[in-house]
Amino acid sequence: LQKLIHLLQATDDPLIQEQALITLSNSAAFSVNQDIIRNLGGLSVIGRMLSDSAPKVKEKALNALNNLSMNIKNQEEIQVYITQVCRNIESAPLNSDLQLAALRLLTNMSVTNDYQHKMISSIPCFLHLLSEGTERTQIQVLKVLVNFSANPAMTRHLLKAQV
């Protein structure tokens, strides 16, 4: 895991970055590895990949962060990327794999009320995706909105959103 993280830091080759991110993502499916990746500084290395210009690298980074977000301590570090993830959703092509990966990460990050406030400005975008997206996109958006609906503090924001 440490070598993969170092490899991500050392290379600018998108194909190598994608493969390293896929391997880290698969490794993060095991809870013991989630702590190891965090302790090695992997979350910030993966998070930096969200500003990469290659959509596939961003997508793979989002998938890795999604698997890593199943851990509360990891969520505390991943939450700093929520605004950027929301921007990726808004700028990604409609129904793209990149958009879906970002929505999956926000689904995990919105399970608790802790970070939902960071997603408020994207509610109009979510509602737009709900009306314009394919069924796969709609399902992912609905998962985020259902998480919001369980939080009374989000009610006002959901009801006053401009569509």
Summarize the SSE layout with pairings.
Elements: H1 2-10, H2 14-27, H3 31-39, H4 42-48, H5 55-68, H6 72-78, H7 82-91, H8 97-109, H9 123-132, H10 135-149, H11 155-160
Tags for this model:
163 residues, mainly alpha, Leucine-rich Repeat Variant, 11 helices, 70% helix, 0% strand, transmembrane helix, ARM-type_fold, transmembrane, ARM-like, ARM-rpt_dom
Task: Walk me through this protein's architecture.
This protein has eleven helices and no strands. With 163 residues, the chain is an all-alpha fold. The protein folds into two domains: 1-79, Leucine-rich Repeat Variant; 80-162, no CATH class. Helix 1 packs antiparallel against helix 2 (14-27). The longest helix has 15 residues, at 135-149. The model has no long low-confidence stretch (mean pLDDT 96). It is found in: Mitochondrion outer membrane.
Quick structural gist:
This protein has 163 residues and is mostly helical.
Strand content: under 5%
Q: Note the overall shape.
A: globular
Mean pLDDT: 96
**Strand segment tally:** 0
Order of helices and strands: HHHHHHHHHHH
Tally of helical segments = 11
Considering DSSP H and I runs of 4 or more, what fraction of the residues is helical?
A: 55-70%
Rg of Cα set: 16 Å
Largest sheet: none
How many domains is the backbone divided into?
2
The low-pLDDT segments are none
* Spatial gap, N to C terminus: 44 Å
Structural class: mainly alpha
